[in-house]
Specification:
The complex is a heterotrimer of chains A (547), B (298) and C (314). Chain A has 547 residues and is α/β, with parallel strands linked by helices. Chain A contains 19 helices and 20 strands. Classes of the chains: A alpha/beta (547), B mainly alpha (298), C mainly alpha (314). Chains in contact: A-B, A-C, B-C. At the A-B interface, β16, α13, α15 and α16 of A face α7 and α8 of B.
Chain lengths: 547, 298, 314
Amino acid sequence: MAEATTAHPPVLEVRGLSVTLPKGADRKYAVEDVSFTVGRGEIVCVVGESGSGKSVTAQTVMGLIPRKDLTPVAGETLLQGEDLLKKSDAELRELRGVKMAMIFQEPMTALNPVMRVGDQIGEMLEIHTQMFAAEIRDRVIEVMKDVNLPDVEQMVDSFPHQLSGGQRQRIMIAMALALEPALLIADEPTTALDVTTQAQILELIKDIQVRHGTGVMFITHDFGVVAEVADRVVVMQQGQVVEQGTAEQVLKRPREPYTKMLIGSVPSMTPPKRKPITEGEPILAAHALEKVYGASGWFGRGRVVHAAKNVELEVRRGETLGVVGESGSGKSTVARCIVRLIDPTSGEVLIDGTNIATMSQAALRAYRHDVQVVFQDPYRSLNPRRTVGQSIVEGPMNFGLSEAEALKRAGSLMEIVGLSAAALDRFPHQFSGGQRQRICIARALAMEPKVLIADEAVSALDVSVQAQVLKLLDDVRKRFDLAMLFITHDLRVAAQICDRIMVMQKGQVVEQGLTAKVYASPAHPYTRLLLDAAPGKNAFLEQKTGN
Amino acid sequence: MAGNPGQVDFSESADTTLSSRKDVSLVAIMWRHPSVFWGGLLLAVIVVIAIVGPLFTVDPVALNPIKRLKSPSAEFWFGTDFLGRDVLARVVHGARISLVVGLAVAVIAVVLGLLIGLVSGYLRWLDAIMMRVMDGLMAIPGILLAIALISLSGATLVTVVIAIVIPEIPRVVRLVRSVVLSVREEPYVEAAIASGTRLIPILWRHILPNTIAPLIVQATYICGSAMLTEAILGFLGAGIPPEIPSWGNIMSEGRTYFQLTPWIIFYPGIALALTVLAVNTVGDGLRDTLDPRIARKM
Amino acid sequence: MLAYIFKRILATVPVMGVVALFVFLMLRLSPGDPAAVIAGDYATAEDIARIRENLGLNEPIVVQFTKWLGQLLQGDLGISIFTNLPVTTLIAQRLEPTLLLTLTTIVFTVAVAIPLGTLAAWKQGSLIDRGVMLFSVAGFSIPVFVLGYILIYVLSIQLKLLPVQGYKSPFTDGLWPFLRHITLPTITLSVIYIALIARMTRASVMEVLQEDYVRTARAKGQSEFKVLMKHAVRNAAVPIVTVIGLGIALLIGGVVVTESVYNIPGLGRLVLDAVLKRDYPIIQGLILLFSFIYILINLLIDLAYTVFDPRIRY
């Protein structure tokens, strides 16, 4: 493996590392016999699904894991030749920030909310150098400029909440690089960011590590990101390394079936051929739909947010309309207005020709079974205290079905979504996330709806599970001739499942059209921006056949 | 490949957390948590003494003018008071009153608070009004409010219980309301709404069960604090009529002779402290077990 | 910023209104003839009539409320039935001991409870932590007056270190006698308050120590002590200060009892005397006073949040 690096010794060398999990966990080791190296000026992506042990590996290197719970029992982690596992807490503190630094997933919570960002970067210098306050400030401004932050002179005195997510992540990177460490550990640094911001941050990390010659250990679950930044790739599963090699080797010619499966599960950016659906009246339509938050209170001038502005949409039976956009685009607001979980401020929502936008809650009940939703978070979508069966039959029984009949229907739906009818008596915690999402689909189908809304329904799932649930959604759409509204931030997912695409930005629809057409020749600049930002777009991944 | 989703391990447990689901039966809790066990044991002993104790002691109100203010002895374990009454008999009898008041206040406050909190958490127009009322009630010092209510309506066991209940209600309402407000945002509640479930079943099936654990914990704290308040009212001479031997009343009568016979205050005082301690310990243990998140809403 | 302050102040108006209405209705809606209850068992018909007149119970209830509220807004809390003096005068006479006792208690509590709670959170699971938690459970369980008598018995009667009871003013009797007399009441009154705030501090600091930004600070190589002081305590300030404010209610209840145990001639004693003499205007006046003080302190704390947390602006 070392042949990829130069004559320099590796910045980080992990050799045979094993870390035990506390008693009572579902396996003995969080990380087992893991070996890899990170060379100078090299980005090594450690990639894996949740539970693969990739984060534990990173935190073990930094010495940030609670050793009581997660104990390294074998191996060594050599930082420029020194074994970190043999260091005392005080010695590790000396190294952190100076020789190794880390950035985290959540830029929103990783910065102290009551401390000015400049001071937080400066703290790094206060701890490890003898610099005076004025020197520190100069250096802080310098590193902030280095990560391309705007108006640095003002921003240095602002608080984290005054900055955007992308700016905060830049602050984190500036902080990490303030002392020019040899190793930068980035733990899912772009996962919580919007796709356009993600592209910028990835660009920044690549640029900086080239300029500073930093070795980067980059933890991610996203093969698109891997394709974008990696020099070398380490694939982990269940605490073990299954495959490693150069990015080109692993992405183009994966040897292990697990790697092949993971890469194969990444949806392609190229939409498959679909026959446009033009027959029949739209079963779901919204006209001039608006949602305004924060209407004026006693003191007038309360901040008014136009969450959705003049939204027009139509979906026919058997058709999937994708609503894509970044956070704050209003895509979920539209979905919630259509289900009437929130009341639209104005406009119409037509279900099979009936306007339900302004209906009273009592009158609305009769239409409830027409529109059903599958939500994002599989862990919160089912009442943990009720059996799966109870959750599924609740809706049909609201509409007069007897318990026996409802249970019978629930049983057959469980089979359809790929679970067994016998599982109806079990509780949600006995199922995995993907299985729970299947149950939620069964619950929605039990209402015999005409419209199914999937609100980021596969976004919280690992990529291999995501592919399966996506396929299931497409299957039930065909089988039950449903009109589907598919809300997502993920352009890859949208490409695979949607007949038509609607792009939203700041509450407004900026573009709408057939998926293949929008992807091939986007009309609106924002759509182009989104498509360009999708990670891994131009890399090896596209040569694979999309599912 | 999509055929068997069961093969895909989705649990995040391996990465950072432990996800062994906890057994929450009472026996299991007592076994795992020594504080619940010892607190529960102490409380059980006190309850047994309160129930059967009076059968074995002398009449707590029998006067014996010859044997006034006697020190603790073989005949009078806890000594006698200024009317020659047996302090042990009075303390044992007083346990009944304390426990009854504590239990009654806890149950009534929780039931009323639950009803108001549930409705208020769900109906926004009512919520605004209810919260102002609760804020107002919380601003009035509980003991003063109780003293005023009792002095206006006459001191009986019932009025004392009511007077202690009223200032406790706002805390329960706020707790229930905060649970309702957070749970009603849960996707499973929204899914139930979207499938046409009416308000009452939503409250009953999906929201109410989430309030049970925090309410049990809250109830124990209310029980403890109610026993203290009852004793304080008695001690100040504003509680249950003086002829009833409640702990507060015994101590109130002991004040005059405190320098001479301090045990008249200390024995019921210790009994009260132990009882409240037992209740609070059980409450703390339950809180840690049932719901660590409510640890902050004491 | 100003708009925020103004809004906050305005928000206390309905709460104060609820308090006033509640106190007003308490007398009018109590079972039986309130005048007769107040007059007591041996009152003559004239006594009852006089009391009814004093409280204005003869008029329609809306008229009563308007008049009463009008007087209240002018700072008039009515006339004591027993002494025939204005309630405000009686309160002014008794204000000093109560005010000073509360102040010493708050200072003592904050000085003890916050370091104790922080230490417990930092050394979670250690002996110190267990000790603090044990103290806090015990503090919630011992009745204030029992604790008072235990302290008097041990420190004053047995060891003769401090005076048994009474109050000396620092203005007329000197600082030293004042301190000697106020020590035991302060400790007595503090215990439950310390228990509350130490516990809250521990919980808040522990929660903050789980935050991502604490992990960031550790990743910088910051020492554990500085992580605690620079990052954790500062962020835990808002919930701690909130509980200090809410605890004022607890404190006011404790004052009544403590003053009674130590024979301190403050507002607490005024209330108790009024209860024994059924002097309702005094009880009512003091409830209003204490409630408004409580609301005011919590308003000030609300405004103080802006100092602790830059996110709260308007």
